[in-house]
Amino acid sequence: MRRLTKEPALPKIDVTKEGRYWRLDWDYQEAPESKVLLTNREFLDGYVCGLLDALGVSAGGICRPSARTGTVKKLSEKTALHLSTLLEDLLHSHVKAEHRRLLNAAEVEDMMRGCKLEGATDHKFGITREH
Q1: b vs e for 14-27, b when ≥16 Cβ sit within 10 Å of the residue's Cβ?
Q2: Domain map of the chain by residue range?
Q3: Burial of 69 (0-12, 13-18, 19+ CB in 10 A)
């Protein structure tokens, strides 16, 4: 798995034309912040299935729909673009929030590591620690 980077590894969402129909593929990117898609799998998978249902996507054109990865075939252009936007809003928001949480946790951990020095002064907070 990749290390945490400055920018989140957002799921890839692609809309492509196949003959007279359109195809939508999405796939998560292997990164620490992507674990949220597995952690919240039940909710997110249900949401994705609900989106497909609400848009009237036929079951014959769906391959492996989940929050982490999926393919939907034989869509109209309008439906493919609309579904792409909805998936992007859903998946990217979760991954971005988890990335922000992980960055904040790493920052706190670095700050706490600095606090463990004996008699160190924390200039940020104007306090001196004594052991």
Answers
A1: ebeeeeeebbbbbe
A2: 12-112
A3: middle
Place of tokens 């579904």: 83
Q: Which pair of structure tokens corresponds to residue 10?
A: 């957002």
User: For the CA atoms of 17, 87, 100, 105, what is the dihedral angle to 10 degrees?
Assistant: -110
Using CB atoms within 10 Å of the CB of residue 125, give its burial: 0 to 12 exposed, 13 to 18 middle, 19+ buried.
exposed
Beta strands in the chain (DSSP E): 12-18, 21-27, 62-63, 69-75, 121-122, 127-128
User: How confident is the model over 9-23, as pLDDT tens digits?
Assistant: 999 999 999 999 999
Q: What does the pLDDT read at residue 56?
A: 85
CB 103 within 8 A of CB 4: yes
